[in-house]
Amino acid sequence: MSKNHRVLNAPAPTAYAQVTPIFLTSSYVTRRNPSLVRHNAEGDDNLKSTERPSSALATIAPSGFFLPRSFHDTPEQQAVNTFFSNYILIPRHPFSERGYLECLLPLYQNTRHDSLLSLATVAMALAIQGTSPPNKHCRVLSQDYFGKALIKTGKAIRDPIESLKDETLIAVLLLSFYERVLAISESKQISGVHDTGAVALVKHRGKENGKSEVSARLLLAVQTQVVDHCIQTSAPFSKTLADLDSLRPSSFENVASRLTSLSAQASDLLAFANPTLRNRNELPSHDQLTAILDHATKVEAQLSAWPESVPNDWWWKSSNTFNTMPSHERKLYVYNRRVDIYPDIWVASVWNSYRSTMLLIQSTILQTLGFLNPPPLSRPAARIVTAINTVQDLVDDICGSVPLNLGTKTFGGPADRAEVRYPDDGVTMPSSDYRKSAASLGGWFLLEPLKTAASAISLREGQKEWILRQIERIQRIYIIE
């Protein structure tokens, strides 16, 4: 894919115009998601008391952003403010949305402080805040809120009214997010219990309760999380995906959601192939290997078509203006002179999701052909060479996205620091929103793709070691054990 990258024809949106006491009023946001925007032209004083922001978001800065009320805010208030500022209110390319965080603020603002959604949000905010070295105590505090949220979840899903609300579904997704953050931070296996619960909840809600744009976005988020989990655990998912697709409005689709649907086929391939290829007690038969190769070829062809469907402004371009710190060697941050820039880190994340899935498919193909042991100069032997070259290109592309996501950051948690440098396009410097998103999310977005890349075979000498050093850098930044 690196040979086919294109020049960006249109810049991604750079910033929201304003964050009002109610929600976002940027024309960009209104254009892409009008059903989520509520504008109050008269200002905060005319809000009904039931619509006021929670105490954690009680003061509003002149620019419109919520700020802590005082220097003595509680850890919960500080964490929630940081969570919304650094993870929610950051502009992103509209076609890259596969999640639910874009829907969180308007729902959160109108909920009680002791509601399920509020407790789940605070638990999530504290868990992320705890990835910063000075705030490790927040991770312990988050467990208390997580426990309270679990109790309320059990009650909500059994309630005939609460179980149908968007607030309940997004709270379950937040609890799944919480589980992922802690599992990754502690190097544990993700159980997927909350993902399974979210699927059951969506099916229970039915098509009639999924017609709004918010509901459609939440359904897409459920699909994305479960597909990612199934790929990581080699579990089948296409039947469940078909069930969920039947509940989603046909008009709601974007570039990222198409990738999710295609990736579900890869999870079925891995569920079909891995038990056979990894069976150390019995060699696979020729018929089994042929069936796996045919299946992999079909999934590969389907997934390979996805890049041709992306808009022009999604394609990355090379940057020659990444000024690393003079006291450090450039190769610590850059592999093989590859510095690629994208419209934003969300677009880069979707691309890396595609590359990770394609790497797993190529790995399956190479393992299968290895068992078949084709003679030299045969078509299967030539396919081995093609697969190895494809793997190398995919891994190079993932490595090329590292400077965009991490810059020169080596420690200090998810907060942005002025001395950290990021690549630019040679015309404009990285915006504050971009820096904030990269500092907060860049490492998390890179971690799984880098792990997949590190497991690839036949990489050029020294590349795996460079990738492993980047993984160690991410673990150091976000306190991942």
What features would you describe in this structure?
- With 481 residues, the protein is mainly alpha-helical.
- The N terminus is likely disordered.
- Helix content is 54%, strand content 2%.
- The protein starts with 26 loop residues before the first helix and ends with a helix.
- It has a two-stranded antiparallel sheet. It has a two-stranded antiparallel ribbon with strand order 3-4.
- A hairpin with a 5-residue loop joins strand 1 and strand 2.
- It is globular, with a radius of gyration of 23 Å.
- It has 16 helices and four strands.
Radius of gyration: 23 Å
Strand content: under 5%
Q: What would the principal axes of the Cα set say about the shape? A: globular
Q: Which ranges are low-confidence, i.e. pLDDT below 50, for 5 or more consecutive residues? A: 2-72
Widest β-sheet, arrangement of strands: 1-2
How many extended strands?
A: 4
Structural class: mainly alpha
Task: Enumerate how many helices there are, as a single number.
Answer: 16
Attribute tags:
481 residues; mainly alpha; 16 helices; 2% strand; disordered N terminus
Task: List the SSEs and their pairings.
Elements: H1 27-32, E1 59-60, E2 66-67, H2 75-88, H3 104-109, H4 116-129, H5 136-158, H6 166-185, H7 193-205, H8 213-233, H9 238-245, H10 255-277, H11 286-304, E3 317-318, E4 340-341, H12 345-372, H13 379-400, H14 402-406, H15 432-454, H16 463-477
Antiparallel strand pairs: 1-2, 3-4
Please summarize what this structure is.
With 481 residues, the protein is mainly alpha-helical.
